[in-house]
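Researcher: Sequence of ATP-binding protein follows. Predict its structure.
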Amino acid sequence: MSEWSGNLPSETRSFVGRQDELARLDVLLRPDDGLPEGGERRRDRNDGRRLTTLLGPGGIGKTRLAVEAARRMRPAYPDGVWLVELSCLHDSGLTGPSTLGLATMEALRVADQTTRPATEALAHWIADKQLLLVLDSCEHLLEDCAAFVDELRLAPHVHILATSRRLLGLPGEQCLEVEPLPVNASCTATRDDAVTLFADRAAAVRSGFVLDETTRPVAVSVCRYLDGIPLAVELAAARLSTLSLTDLDDHLGTRTDHRLALLASDDGTEDPSRHQALRTTIGWSHELCAPRERLLWARLAVFTGGFDVDAAQEVCAGGPLTAGQVPVLLDELAAQSIVQRDHRTGTARFRMLDTVREYGAEWLRELGEKDAVRLRHREYYRRLARDGCAEWNTGRQVQWSARVLTDHANLRAAVDWSLDRPDRRAALEIAGTAGFLWRHCGHVRDAHHCLDRVLATDSPPGPDLLRALWTRGAGAIMQGDLDTAAEYGRRFAEAARQQEDPTVRSVSVFLTSGQLSLRGRPAEAIGPMSAAARLPVQDDWLGSAQIQTIGALAYAHLMAGDHAAARATAEEVRAECARRGEHWSRSTADVIVAMLDLARGDIASGVHNAARAVAAHGLLHSAGGLAALALDTLASATVAAGEAHRAAELLGIAHRLWDRAGGRAQLNSPDLIAARQACERAIRDKIGDPAYEHSYEAGRAMSYEQGMSYATDTTPRVSI
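Model: Prediction complete. C-alpha cells:
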C-alpha cells in the first residue's frame, strides 16, 4: 500500500525530545507476533502489553507524545493506527461505554447499520483486526473508559494507548508517566529538550532567533521557571512576537500571583508545582491579552472539535465585541498560541487545546455568559442544519456533506444541549434536521440516539415531527431493522393524515411499503408505491424523500422481475437527480440500472453505471452499505467483462465496507446475497481459489481512499 491506514493528524510542527519515552513506547506498543497456529486467538483481557496509559497533568504533552509514538508504529498495524479524541464529549449529553463505542466507530469510519449497542458492534468489527487505538483525554469519562477498554481488550490484536490525568485502574494496565521536558544550562547538554522546544517555537514568531551565548542562559531561565512544561513553554515563546527575550524572562520572574486556581485538580492528584507553573503561564497569557481578546477566548470555549471564522463571528459577537472584530482577534489569539490553526480539513479552521479551552470555559462561567453563548451556539448550528436540509436535494449536496462531517462534533453538542432544555419545539427541530443529515452522511447511530430521545416524549405536530419520524424510519430501513421501520411508517402515516400537504402523504409509502422488498415481498410494495402521487420534486428533505420513494419503487420492480418498469422508473430518478446535481439518490438508481444492464448482457454499460455509483459515494465520503452494494455490483460487471483478478479485488474492497457497515452484508437481502455469491463463484472458476484469495485480500488491505480510487479507475485492462 502507498499509505498507512488511520486518521492521525498531519505534522504541522516539529516534534522535540521524548526519545526515552518513545523508545519505551516502542516496546509497549509492539504488536503480537501474528496468530497462533490454527488461527485461534487469545482471549486474555489482562494482557498489560495491550493497554498503556500516558499519565500526566494538562499541558504536559501527553497527546503529542501519543500521536508521535502511534505514527512511528504505523507499519506494525496493518488495520491502521487511529486517534479517538474524547475531549469533544466534555459537553455532550451522551454518557456510558456505548458513547465511547460510538465515538470510536466515527473515528474508524465504521458506518455500523445494525441495531446492536455501539460497543458490541465495535467489538464484533475489531475481533479479527490488528490495529492501535489512541484514546485521548480519558480523565473526564474515567469509569466509562475503563469499562469500554476492558471490552475492547477481548480483541486479541488490538492495542490501546490512552492519555489521561488519572489511571484507568484496569488489571495489567501499563503506566508511563509523562514528565516535564528536561532543562539544562550547559551548551553541550544532551538533554536540553525544553530549551530546544522554546527556541524552535520562538523562531516561528521572531525571524532569526537562535540560541547563542547571550540568548541561551535567558532561555534556560525562562524554561526553568516554567518547569519545562511544553504547553507553558510554547505559550511563553509565542510572547516573543511582542516582547524581547529579556522582557519575557523579567515578566515571568516577577510573577507572584497565580490566578489559575480554577484549573487545579479536583482530587489533588496532580503535582502542585508543575500545575502551578502551567496555571501561572496561562494566567499570564490571559492577562496580557487585550480585554476583547479575553472575551473572545472565553466565548470560543463553547465550540467542540473546531470552528471557522463565520461560526466564531455568529456565536461570539455581542456587547463590546463586534462581528467585524472577531477575525482580527482570532489572528491575534492564534499568534499567541491561544487558538491553533487546524489544517486537517483543508479549510480555514481553528481549535483550542483542552487545557486552554477549560480555562476559557471557567471564565465564561465567571462572566455569567455560559447559557447565553451556548444558546447562540445552538442557534447557529440549528440554522446550519436547517439550511442543509433545505438544500440537500440540490447541487450543493456535496458541500453540505463535507460541512456536516467537518462540524459533526458541534452539531452533536448543539443537539444534546437542546435535548436537555425545556424548549421541546427547538429540540424536535434540530434533532430532526441534524438526524436527517447524519443519516445520509454516515452517522446513523447519532441520528437514532437524538431522534429516539425526542420522539419518546409528546411532540408537537407539524413539519418538524414529520421530518423526525420519516428520518427515524428511513434510518431503520438502512439498518435492516424492518419492524422498527414499519412502526415509524405507521406513526408517520398517521401524522401525515393530519397535514394538508400532498407531498407529505406521497412519501409515507417509502416507510410503509418500501421495506417490503427487503422482506422478499416486492409485489406487495409495488401497488401502494405506484399509486403515490407524482408531484413536482422539492429542493428540501421532502424532495429527497420523494426521489428515494421513486427509487424504492424501481428496486421493487427489479426484485419482482419487471425489468422494463424498473428501468423506466430508475431512469426517471436519474434524470431528476441529474437536473438537480444530486448524487446520493442518483447513486442508488445507477446501481439499479447497472444490475439491469448486466441482466440483458450490456457489460460495458453495467461497468460504467456501477462505477458512477461508486464515484458518487466517494464524492460524498460515504462508507456505508449502499457504497458497498455499488462495489458488489461493479465486481459483478467487472468479472463479466473478463477482469477476474480486478473483480476479486473489488469484492475485497466491498467486504471491508460491508464490515465497517456493521455486519449486515448485502442489506440482508436474499437476492443480493445470491448475486454476490454468484460473482465470487464466477471469479473462482476463472482464476482458481489461490489467485482469488490473493486478489481478494489485496482489496481488503486497501484504505477507503485507495479502494474508492482504484474502483473508479475504469481504464481497460488485459484479462489474465
